[in-house]
Each structure stands twice: as C-alpha cells, then as structure tokens.
C-alpha cells in the first residue's frame, strides 16, 4: 500500500470502470457508515457524485466536509483498490448532467425500466458532491 496525493494512470484505469465506490463521510462521534455510490473521476482529478440536497450525507458534509471513497476490483480479479480522501464541496449545478452520464455508465438505458428510473432521478432536486483529493492510497497485488 502506498499513499500519494495524485491519481496514477493505474488508479484512473480502475476508477473509470463502472464499479461501485464506497463513500464515507466524517460523522464526528458517530461511527462512519460507508454507502455504495456511483461516481465519476473528472479530468481535474476530483471525484464527483450526485445525491439529494437533504440527504444525511449532505447534512454531515455541511458540518464537516471530510470524506473518502474506496473502489475495489471485483471478486475474481487480482486484488486492487484505490482510496481517495479529502474535502467535499456541495455544488448546486451539474448534478443532473452527472446523473445522466453515470446512468449511461451503470445502466442499459435502452431498457425502458432503467430509462424511467433515470427520468425519476432527473425529476428530483439533486446536488453534485465534489471530492477534492488530499490523499490517495492504493493497493495492487
């Protein structure tokens, strides 16, 4: 395992696959509770997600903006994971565009059920979470 503040080409290769990330936000005295999330690595190295503006994770991030995301290769592949930690900003713009890109990454949108699921997401208010990396850890076997 190594720690480095930037993403390597091998990190980006793993992070650009349609895998679930596990997001953990700072919770003060409450034990952290990771949640599976869709995510996207932007060209500037930030990790972006979308969520409802009134979710518990947003309320916690407004109090303490520290968070991390861990992404691991699936079972059957050699062990490989990347963890990105840093401060999160909650952005009012870009969430619906991000949701549309991620839905196309994770779902077959030619499936009418999935297309309707995306329409439901886009009908709701969303915010964009932007994780600005302060530390990147990784492991590859």
Structure characterization notes:
With 141 residues, the chain is of the alpha+beta class. The protein has a single domain, classed as Electron Transport, Fmn-binding Protein, Chain A (Pnp Oxidase, Chain A), CATH 2.30.110. Helix content is 28%, strand content 36%. It is built from four helices and eight strands. It has helices spanning 9-15, 56-63, 95-106, 112-123; strands at residues 2-4, 21-25, 35-37, 40-41, 47-51, 66-72, 80-91, 127-140. β4 and β5 (47-51) form a beta hairpin. α3 (95-106) packs antiparallel against α4 (112-123). The longest helix is centred in the last third of the chain and has 12 residues, at 95-106. The protein is globular, with a radius of gyration of 15 Å. The model has no long low-confidence stretch (mean pLDDT 93).
Which whole number gives the mean pLDDT? 93
Percent range for helical residues?
Answer: 25-40%
User: Gyration radius, to the nearest Å?
Assistant: 15 Å
Question: Poorly predicted ranges (pLDDT <50, ≥5 residues)?
Answer: none
- The N- to C-terminal Cα distance equals 10 Å
Query: Which topology does CATH recognise?
Result: Pnp Oxidase, Chain A
Q: Judging from the principal axes of the Cα atoms, what is the shape?
A: globular
Helix/strand/pairing class, anyone? Answer: alpha+beta
β-strand percent reads 35-45%
Q: What CATH first level would be assigned? A: Mainly Beta
């Amino acid at each position: 395992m190594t720690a480095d503040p930037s993403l390597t080409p091998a990190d980006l290769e793993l992070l650009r696959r349609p895998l679930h990330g596990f997001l953990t936000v700072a919770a003060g005295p409450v034990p952290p509770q990771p949640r599976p999330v869709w995510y996207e690595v932007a060209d500037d190295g930030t990790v972006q997600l979308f969520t409802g503006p009134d979710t518990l994770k947003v309320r916690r991030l407004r109090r303490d903006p520290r968070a991390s995301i861990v992404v691991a290769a699936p079972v059957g592949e050699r062990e490989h994971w990347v963890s990105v930690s840093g401060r999160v900003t909650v952005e009012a713009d870009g969430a619906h565009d991000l949701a549309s890109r991620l839905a196309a990454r994770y779902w077959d949108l030619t499936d009418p059920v999935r297309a309707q699921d995306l329409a439901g997401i886009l009908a709701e208010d969303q915010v964009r979470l932007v994780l600005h990396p302060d530390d990147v850890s990784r492991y590859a076997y």
